[in-house]
């Protein structure tokens, strides 16, 4: 199933199931009874929003060999926290702060937690993962390198585009990701190349923090990245999930 969150033509914010180009409204939220109400809208007539409302965003650094350059592979998932105020809707505009000089894209697979998760084993992870979506972990590389914390390097407003849909039956083991800037492919990777896979990440994170339904974990970015410029269009595509498209201002 493909779930979206959207503002409909009445201006109401709701969740729905995406079937081709039709969104079918559901009641009960993403993690409740999820019953279709019968109301349907054309996809083109609604405004897609971030597909869930996380209480926290975790993200993994250095999770593909192709992104490590000459660094050693980490022994455990290298986790950092991004404030939820950084979330940006699909089609929303990434805003580069005036004094930022080196803002990069990072296309990523994002897992969405489906139930309260604390101290689970990797073998239990599957029943705790609701689904997967696309994310772009926008990163100011100079601040990432020079600040003690990554609160602004990774956490400025609009630095966490998320969406467009959550796919519940996504087979990440055979999935792949591409990032395009102005139509040119600038990143590609296969999720089989992840150093720590989604069950390992969720299990490790749950040893230290309780995760709640709707919390999201960005799983890391492959390959090398480069600076974005105002006016760029950046797309993160995961076949089977969709395309997360954002402009840069
Ligand atoms: Mg990242």
CATH topology of the largest domain: Fumarylacetoacetate hydrolase, domain 2
> What order do the SSEs take from the amino end to the carboxyl end, as H and E?
EEEEEEHEEEEEEEHEEEHEEE
Arithmetic mean of pLDDT: 97
Bound molecules: magnesium ion
Which percent range fits the helix content? under 10%
Low-confidence stretches: none
CATH 2nd-level architecture of the largest domain = Alpha-Beta Complex
Q: Beta fraction of the residues?
A: 35-45%
Instruction: Please give the largest β-sheet.
Output: 12 strands, mixed
What's the end-to-end separation, in Å? 33 Å
Write the layout of secondary structure elements.
Elements: E1 2-7, E2 13-19, E3 22-27, E4 35-42, E5 47-49, E6 57-61, H1 65-68, E7 78-82, E8 87-88, E9 93-94, E10 103-104, E11 107-113, E12 129-136, E13 139-140, H2 141-146, E14 160-167, E15 176-181, E16 184-190, H3 198-206, E17 216-218, E18 233-238, E19 242-248
Parallel strand pairs: 6-17, 8-14, 9-19
Antiparallel strand pairs: 1-2, 1-5, 1-14, 2-3, 3-4, 6-7, 10-13, 11-12, 11-17, 12-14, 15-16, 15-18, 18-19
Bound molecules: magnesium ion.
Magnesium ion binds at residues 59, 61, 106, 108, 137, 218, 220-221.
Task: Give your account of this protein's structure.
The chain has 2 domains: 2-49, SH3 type barrels; 57-248, Fumarylacetoacetate hydrolase, domain 2 (Alpha-Beta Complex). The chain is 8% helix and 40% strand. It contains 3 helices and 19 strands. The chain has helices at residues 65-68, 141-146, 198-206, and strands spanning 2-7, 13-19, 22-27, 35-42, 47-49, 57-61, 78-82, 87-88, 93-94, 103-104, 107-113, 129-136, 139-140, 160-167, 176-181, 184-190, 216-218, 233-238, 242-248. The longest helix has 9 residues, at 198-206. The two termini are 33 Å apart. The mean pLDDT is 97. The site of magnesium ion has 8 residues, from strand 6.
């Amino acid at each position: 199933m493909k779930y979206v969150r959207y503002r409909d033509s009445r201006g109401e914010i709701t969740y729905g199931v995406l079937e081709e180009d039709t969104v079918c409204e559901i009641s009960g939220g993403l993690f409740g009874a999820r019953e279709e109400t019968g109301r349907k809208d054309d996809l083109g007539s609604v405004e897609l929003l971030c597909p869930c409302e996380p209480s926290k965003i975790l993200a993994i650094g250095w999770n593909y060999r192709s992104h490590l350059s000459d660094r050693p592979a980490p022994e455990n998932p290298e986790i950092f926290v991004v404030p939820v105020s950084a979330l940006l809707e699909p089609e929303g505009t990434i805003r580069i702060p005036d004094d930022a000089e080196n803002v990069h894209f990072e296309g990523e697979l994002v897992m969405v937690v489906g139930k309260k998760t604390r101290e689970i084993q990797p073998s239990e992870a599957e029943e705790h993962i609701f689904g997967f979506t696309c994310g772009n972990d926008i990163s100011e590389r100079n601040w990432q390198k020079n600040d003690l914390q990554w609160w602004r390097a990774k956490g400025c407003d609009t630095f966490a585009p998320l969406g467009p849909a959550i796919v519940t039956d996504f087979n990440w083991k055979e999935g792949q990701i591409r990032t395009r800037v102005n139509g040119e492919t600038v990143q590609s990777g296969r999720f089989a190349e992840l150093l720590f896979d989604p069950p390992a990440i969720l299990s490790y994170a749950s040893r230290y923090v309780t995760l709640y339904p709707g919390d999201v974990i960005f799983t890391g970015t492959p390959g090398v990245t480069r600076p974005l410029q105002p006016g760029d269009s950046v797309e993160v595509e995961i076949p089977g999930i969709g395309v997360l498209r954002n402009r840069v201002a």
